[in-house]
User: Fold this.
Amino acid sequence: MDDALRYLDTTGLRRLYATRQLSPVEFTRATLDLIADLDPVLGAFVTVAADRALADAARAEKRLLALGEAAWEDHPLLGVPLSVKDLTATEGIRTTRGSLPLRDAVPDRDAPAVARLRRAGALVLGKTTTSEGGWSAGTVNRVGPPAANPWDPSLSAGGSSGGAAAAVAAGLGIAATGTDGAGSIRIPAAFCGVVGLKPTHGRVPYAPYCPDRLAHLGPLTRTVADAELLLRVMTGPDTRDPDSLLPPHDAPRAPDGPLRIAWIEGLRAPSAGIPADAQRAAVERLAAAGHQVEEIPPPMGDAYPALVTLLAAAEAAGTSEADDAWADPARLAVVRHGRTLTAVQLVRAEAERAELTRRLLACLTRFDVLAMPTVPVQPFAVDAWHPDAPAYDDPLAWLSWAPAAFPFNMAGLPAVSVPAGPGPGGLPVGLQLAAARHHDALVLRVAREVEAANPWRDAHPERTGT
Assistant:
C-alpha cells in the first residue's frame, strides 16, 4: 500500500469509494496485508479479525453499488476500517483485556460504542494491545508483546491504548478506539504523534461500568475531523453506564471569535522531564491568530495520592486473590496496596477529587481552554511502563510521570492531545487542550486550529522504521 492510501482520512476514503477508484474490499484487504507486514515488529494487534472484516467490507461494497451516495445516509463510517482496544467488548472477536485468564474469552455482545460504530458502517480489523486491564501507561502484558512506537520500535507506544495509537500512526486502519482512566488515550497519542480525545465523562457510555468513575472511551485518529466524527457516532446514553444517562446530551456549541487560553508549563515529571519548546510554539501560533494567551501556574494541586487510592481500590475490587498467580507482578503490587485501604481513605480521596474539580472549574471561569504539554517525558523503552529513573522504583509511582493527564479523568473534563511537532530527537510530542464539562466541541475547535497551523502535520513514521 502506498502512503497516499495508507494515511487516508475518512473524507479521502469516502471520495475514493464514491468515485469507484477504490472499493471497501480492496482497501480492507490492503490494510490487512499491511498489518501482516508490519505488526510482527509493532505488536499493535493482539487479535486480527481478518475474515470478519472482509465479510463486512463486502457488505459495505454491496450497499455502495446498490445505493451510490445514498449509501452513506445513517452510515457515516461506511467501509471505514478501524480497530478496537482489547479492553472493550467485541461480539464474536476475542477480548483478552491483556489478561492471561481471559486469553480465550469471546464476548457475545458488543460494548455500546462498538455497536454504534458497526451500525455506522465501520469495519473492525481487530483488537489492539493494552496492558493488563489497562492498569499502566505502557502496554506490557502477559498475553502478547508490548506495542512498539512506529517512530522508533525500540521505544514504547505509551499506554494503555498503546496498540491503538501505534496502529493509527503506522497507517494500520483509519482510526481506533481507546480507553482512558488516567491518560491512557492521550499519553500514547502524544508518544505516537496522533490525535487522542478523552471526552467529557459519560458522553460515550463505558461498559462494563467502572465504579471509580475515572474511565472514559474515545477515539484515536490522524485528524481532528475524524476524532469529531467518531465521537458523534459513539455519543449518547446507554443503560449499561449510569453516568451516560445524565444530561445534557446536546453539548454546548463552540463559540466563535478569540478565546481566553491558559498556557501551563509547570507540570514536571520527577527526574525525566524534557523541554516543551514545540508545544509552546504551537500556543504562540494560537496567540498570533488572535487568541488571548496567558501563562499561569498549574491550578491542580497535588492529586496524585488520591488517584493512587482510587485506582488501587478499583484494581483490588476487581481482582480475586485466586487470580493473583496469573496477574502482572507490577500490577499485583497495586492490587495488594488496594486491599489495605479503608473506607475512610476512600472518602478522603473522593474529597480530594472534589477539591481538584473545584480548582479546575474555578480556573475555567477565567479561561475558555487550558493548554499544556500532554506528557513531560519522552517515550521510554518498549518493555517498560515508566521512564527509567529511580523516582519510579516505588510501585505506587507508576503514573506520577504524567501529571497533566490524570487530573482531567478525576474531574471528568474533556481533554484532547493533538500533535505539536517534533520534540527532542525528532520524536512526536503532544499539546493537551482541556475545557469545562460538556465543552468537547471547544477543545476540538482549538485542536483543529493547532493542527492547521502545525508545519509538521503531514509527517508520518518512515516505513523502514517499522
